[in-house]
Every structure is written in structure tokens, then in C-alpha cells.
Amino acid sequence: MHESPSSMLQKPSLAKYCAAGIQRRAARAEVRIFLDANVLFSAAKSDGFVRRLLELLLADGHTLCADGYVAEEARRNLAVKGPQGLPALAALLDRFEVAALQADPGTATALSALPEKDRPVVAAAVRMACDALVTGDRTHFGRFYGRKLAGVAIHSPRTLAERLL
Length: 165
Known about the structure:
By secondary structure, this protein is of the alpha/beta class. The protein has helices at about 5-10, 15-25, 35-45, 50-60, 70-80, 85-95, 105-110, 120-125, 140, 155-165; strands at about 30-35, 65, 95-100, 130-135, 150, 150-155. The protein has a six-stranded mixed beta sheet.
């Protein structure tokens, strides 16, 4: 039986991360994780890798965080590109710690390496005392994957799964 090239390039399942991490989980401390709008969008739009990742992180006792800025951006994008995901977004946000939108010019200004529209995301993660920020935005955050910005570790969904599960 021959596999198509696209089936050979599928994203890894979370089962791989879960099986490897079962024994380590009990010894790990809770991690506070801030979710960028694109992660919220992906989790709400389809029952795929990102939604399963968030479910596993919650089950492991981690705290998932967002604020009004990223929640509203995810809502706006879903309304245009996938309105059927709006109820899923609302249900997900009910399970997360969600802070009101607050401008923090001091932290935002210190993040001049990022485009202005992305600075409030990291500033909110700092304000909410998050250990990590997970984003699929490779264009603006990709060079920071695996590094810290303002004390917050920046991860893609995949690298966060590798690190915590």
C-alpha cells in the first residue's frame, strides 16, 4: 500500500506526547500559559491538534489564560472565517482565566522588537504572571520560539506540547 506525500507529512498526534510524559506529569508544577488569538481561533474552529492540546493542558492542571484583546481578535476572525466556531470559543473561554483588556504602556514599549499590534499580547502575558505564551504566529514570534520575551517563554503549539506533555 502506498501512502500519499500529504499523509506522510501529517502533524504528529498528541498520543506521542502523552505517552512520553505520563510518568513526568506527577512531578511537574502548574504552568500559566497565555494563548494568542490565533491559538484561540484554531481551537475554536476545529476539533484538531490545538483543541486537543488545550484539553490536555487543562487536564494536567495547567492554567490557560487570555485577555480581552486576544479574545476579541479571535471572535472577530471567527465571525468572518468560521462563525460555526463562535460557540466553541465561548465554551473554551469559560474554562480559562480571562482578564479584561488593560493597556500597559511600560511593558508594551519595552517590546519594540515586535510589531505594535503584538506588543499587547506579551504585555498581557506578563501582567497575568504567565510562564509561557503559545502562538502560531511564526512571522512575528517565530524568531523568539524557545526564548523569553519580558520573562515569558515563547512557544508554538508543537514546542509547548513537546515541553509540557
